[in-house]
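Inputs:
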Amino acid sequence: MAINFLLPEFEVERSDYRCIRCRVCERQCANQVHRYDPDADVMLSDETKCVDCQRCVCLCPTHALKIKKNEAAFRTNANWKQNTILEIYKQANTGGVLLSSMGNPEPFPVYWDKILINASQVTNPSIDPLREPMETRVFLGKKPHEIERDENGAIKTELPPQIELELPVMFSAMSYGSISYNAHKSLATAAEALGICYNTGEGGLHEDFYRYGKNTIVQVASGRFGVYKDYLEAGAAIEIKMGQGAKPGIGGHLPGAKVGEDISKTRMIPEGSDAISPAPHHDIYSIEDLRQLVFSLKEATEYQKPVIVKVAAVHNIAAIASGIARSGADIIAIDGFRGGTGAAPTRIRDNVGIPIELALAAVDKRLRDEGIRQNVSLVVGGSVRSASDIVKAIALGADACYIATSALLALGCHLCRTCQSGKCNWGIATQDPELVKRLNPETGKERLVNLLTAWKHEIKEMMGLMGINSIEALRGNRLMLRGVGLNEKELEILGISHAGE
Amino acid sequence: MIQLNTKALNRQSLNEAIRELDGDITLENVLGQRFIAAGMSGKTLEIHGTPGNALGAYLNGAVINVHGNAQDAVGDTMNSGRINVFGNIGDAPGYAMRGGRIYVKGNAGYRAGIHMKAYKEHLPVLMIGGKAGSFLGEYQAGGVIIVLGLSDDEKDIVANFPCTGMHGGKMYLRSRCEGIHFPHQVTAHPAQPEDLDEIREYIEEFADIFGYNAEKIISGDFTVIVPDSKNPYQQMYVAN
């Protein structure tokens, strides 16, 4: 066998003293790392196959296992880091494009962590959320430019269609195909329980999930998978996917091997056939063309559904958003460069796009300057990790946030970043029936509800300490934010002052 | 058949009027209104004039006869039903259609039948009586595209880059296709009798609608194009 020059990325450390040879690790590992040798009565490991998903560690009844970073290392080199060298070996071995999963893991600045939140002291009282009503409900959609009254002076209350959310969070697009049936069911049922929405991604909507329609956003992407009249009418809103933060400007590709009977039915494509979503919509080359798709969807659904246009955060995002706000879209979703994915070329995931914090601030400002901010709601995603990220996003101008990686973590994901293999040991990013059943959708729902219930409390606490009792009053309230360790340009783009000012 | 003069109607009120009327409708004086019959089922529409872009988008069983030309994006993401165009058709007809039939008597613009799909019993058919523009059947994943070349101009039956990214379905061009370049991941071969048997029903229907002799059409030289693989990109990646 030719030498492939690769070394195992991880080490399996097994305490022989603790190991009882129960072989749980062997049964649980879809990557076949663990193996029992009956002659020697010993558990063996093939560490080249380990992805550090921690499944065996979590399930080992005697805590005999640890997965560690392999300390074996090439000679230290600040320029040619070990990973860089290994990537070259991989490509020299195969001629393939490097393919990765989940969000950009590189050490780019995380602006959320350089922004701090204000609090009331002495002169402006804070509000106690345990005693006072706190409003976290938001409505996403086009708002009127001014209050209109009828001949009797009563306010006209007819609004364009809106999405109503009990808290400013939605689960962002993950297709059935990239994640499992049970993962989708967990998201759908949790969204229903929480009064928020989840998103089908571009994989169509499984027949079992039409009942969660009012908590569902249905996506229309360049491949138009599973898009038909009933699908469009099933959801609370329709999202046109123009781009995705993890891979702006390129398409998606579900390998035929993952297109089994059920996926084929849901995506409405032949079984075993690659599901290719090309980079562009081949009928959209301008804002006018986008407008055509927006209105064809509105006509088909009789103007009952808000239309979301989702784009990746890229260099000219403010100008792009301004165009979208004039296309007839009701909501713009912007996905930052740290957003996750089921599979993307490594080079694109790690090098294309811009941080969501900067994109959001730039877009909100541009739309305000142009007097069209009320034409659209803004939803941002691309690594929103906590309640404080959400509060900061709202204060920077977002109407709501999309979360996906956080939701998958709640379901048990350990961010091993090998979704593309389809062998997710946690039953999330897989279609293997044996693996899918490891995720109990009841438990999944409960964990998601727990997570967002906790975040809702935290959001209320943070609103209260700022003296704000309605999330609407926080939106775009950049006076509530201060930067630390940011340069003047960064502060200018974020539209915030430095701490101490 | 109910008559509806559409002259003073914008696209939204036109679709509302169609939805409110029971039964089959003749639309008179159509002048560029977009999205006519979007998502519609259970009706027959006779269209006189020129409908605008995205006619019959997401069509779900309705029948549309256009007695004239149609513009871009006809039958976008069509699920079922029929669209017959007695003139020419613009760009991107049948984008991602997965069922139903679009028959065009005249020529088609760019990107006809791209992303066409099929599943279970759904098999979409796009038949163009004249010639087709560039990018015909780009990313075709299923269904049948047929171009007959019945117009008497000097153009090739299809312009540049047909079948790019094709990974499913079948294409029939009524021509020997000499000088037409196909991408490497598809195979083009002269139609065998069994290939033609698969589309005989459609051609007879087409001839019947537009007043041609089906036998005469079928007796022409057909080239059949099929993809070599339904997984054309599987070798391109290495896990990282």
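Chain B touches chain A through 51 residues (CB under 8 Å). Flag for discussion at group meeting.
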